[in-house]
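Honest question from a wet-lab person: if I give you the sequences of every part of a complex, can you actually get the arrangement of the whole thing, not just the pieces? Trying it with mine:
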Amino acid sequence: MSANIRRNLTGIAFVSPWLIGLGLLFAYPFAASLYWSFCRYDLLSPPEFIGTQHYQRLAAEIAAGEGFGRAIWNTGYFALLSVPLSIALGVGLATMLSWKVRGQAVYRTLFFLPSVVPVVASSALWIWLLDPRDGILNRLLESVAAPRQLWFKGATEAMAPPDWFDFGSKDALILMSLWGVGNFMVIYLAAIGDIPEQLYEAAELDGAGRLRRFWHVTIPMLSPVIFFNLVMGMIQSVQAFTQVYIVSEGTGEPAAWSLMLSLHLFLSAFQDLDMGYASAMSWLLFVFLLIATALLFRTSRNWVHYQGAGR
Amino acid sequence: MSLPKPHPLAHTSLVVSAAIFAFPLLWMVLSSLKPSTQLVEDPYAFWPRQWQWSNYVEAVQAMPYLRYLRNTLLLAGGSVVGSVLSCSLVAYGFARVRWRGRNVLFGVLIATMLLPWHVTMIPRFLLLRELGLYNSLAALVVPTFLGDAFYIFLLRQFFLTIPEELSEAGRLDGLGEWGIFCRIIMPLSTPALATVALFQFIASWNDFSGPLLYLSDPDKFPLAYGLEQFVSSYSDQTHLLLAAATLFTLPIVILFFLTQRTFLRGIATTGLKG
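Yes, you can. This is the full assembly:
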């Protein structure tokens, strides 16, 4: 019995740094921001309870498509394009790397390298590459007789009406995020390496060609990683901040077209000192992510194939 | 491992994709070495008219580079020590000690990974300000001593693979849990500890939102934040801007090449086990 208590205390002692962190950096902030979301709070005077006013304002902004509503649209546009595209690209590059060709390690390094470039540096780099006037990409577009684009300076959306194929600030951010797909690619590559060879041999015996083997062996076997990529990609793109801040010089301009949720939240809190409004926003965001993650987990039963019972 | 045989076009498609991925970095480095006049008159020429190494000297002199670097190294060094110490302790508690509530709390730990940082950002900021840490690198270092869910998870997975018999042998020799942790588990875990140290170093090196939020005094800015200031104030001096960005990226790229195996294995395991 006393040995039991001792063991319990030992265990708790080992995890105590994290327990303190859990209380100070998660539990307390979590509760405080929920309370403040019902308060008027500008840091100068103590929080004052005002009920659901902030939530009503957020609802009105969603209805009007301004402020928070605009930020939701921007973030949704970014996430719904960048996550599926990064999955497709990540799987594609990893598949190419799994072919037995000479120099495989070199190609792997070249694909992966962009993902280690610090976001501050890659943002500066892409601002320059995508400069509407002098940028190299517009120059390349011009050389194939394609129209020049405004990129980070453009208040347009290439994948939505009314300005189809006018690439604007969010499209530029998507392009930038695809360049850094290397992290997920490495995970796919490791997962492809774990696929038992017999599966391919069996498929080949059944007369499956290259493409069918890819669809019916590789993709199902990668589905746990694709699922992981989907969940993490969603969370990451909803939280995207640094690149959005830098390319818009901390404003979300042009015309609020790159005002993502995290930047809007940051500006509301630390520029407008509207802590209550920002807290309400962060809670709506949290609830949304919770629901979206739960839905993803629910649908995952239908398409994610886990091998064996180990996991 | 054996994989489908490559398509005849495999090599071509690999070369083309690799060229596309590599081009932005190559273009950045090449252009950072061009004279400023060339960047204005003939920005699309591939090679520098002359190799203008002095761009780097100028870029370093245009900002308090050494001070920024010192701050970054302080920040990264402190955070690496904090993360490795706290996360290995906590991971040991979750992996190798059996106690009541362990599994429940481990579930909570996993859940915190899914929590968006926005939700805790404002109160956390005010709390650290109350503690007198505003405008101090300590605001960014102190939290690393309280563990990080991702690293704890990574280390726990590694500790679980160490055979229990080794701990038993230690117990027979009279070691307590602390002794087993220090003398048996830690020495066997250097690869995993190196991964945590590496990832934390890079995270601190790259961190922008932390300094943006917590630091106001330019004397305390780390490189990432200093570079952003530089980018916004020197946007017309492309040669300096690119030299500064290259200089900021280079150490991380070198670090990647030196530690490639640790690096890639770390990413692959956390992804697969997640």
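Two things worth pointing out. Chain B has 15 helices and no strands. Chain B has a mean pLDDT of 91.
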